[in-house]
Hints:
Layout: E1 5-11, H1 17-27, H2 37-44, E2 49-58, H3 71-80, H4 85-89, E3 100-110, E4 113-121, H5 130-144, E5 149-155, H6 159-167, E6 171-176, E7 187-191, H7 198-215
Parallel strand pairs: 4-5
Antiparallel strand pairs: 1-2, 2-3, 3-4, 5-7, 6-7
Amino acid sequence: MEQNTRYHIRRMKDGDIPQVLEIDKDAFPTQWPHPTTNSFRLELRNKLAHYFVICRENEDGNTPGQPQPGRIKRIISFFQRFLDHDRFFGNAYINASGEYLVGIVGIWMMVDEAHITTIAVRSSYRRLGFGEWLLIVIIDLATSLHAHSVTLEVRVSNTVAQLLYEKYGFTIAGTRKKYYQDNHEDALIMTTDQLSSPVFQSRFQQLKEEHRTRWSHCYTLS
């Protein structure tokens, strides 16, 4: 991990889509079909969907190794700190500061269930706690939206991801046969217990604090 580099999570914007597509192809190289620019644009306008990205930044707010933003973009970036971005800029100048994205997560809120549609981290940024951080953000969001539980599908062969989900209270609820079109692999359906239960929240808050303690030197944690 680069010296003096920090990371933060924010909601995904239209201007993030090219990098999000890169992350998706990097994380799921055999998956078919891959999401498209248009499919993500539709998702960002879907009232049921919520997407977040992890951004890499230097202490000065610029991406390591990336060109410095021009004068106009710096001015826009300055005012973006004080204005509601969507209302005043309509996604027109996203990534004006040259942010580099390293991870993405998305959910659909379906009645009282939060379903994770994607969770992915660039291969060069794995095993650094980013996937866990994304999962924490989603569980927090689902709780705040009064979801009863969080669900997802995961490849039968993806034991690393399964261990992370089990750590956060997910259990296997079933199987979707030949769910993945690239190789017809089965998917495990995993779900949490009731998010509002004292037992679940006690364990979740403990795990969240352990993650915060371990990674607070490089994550801008909320």
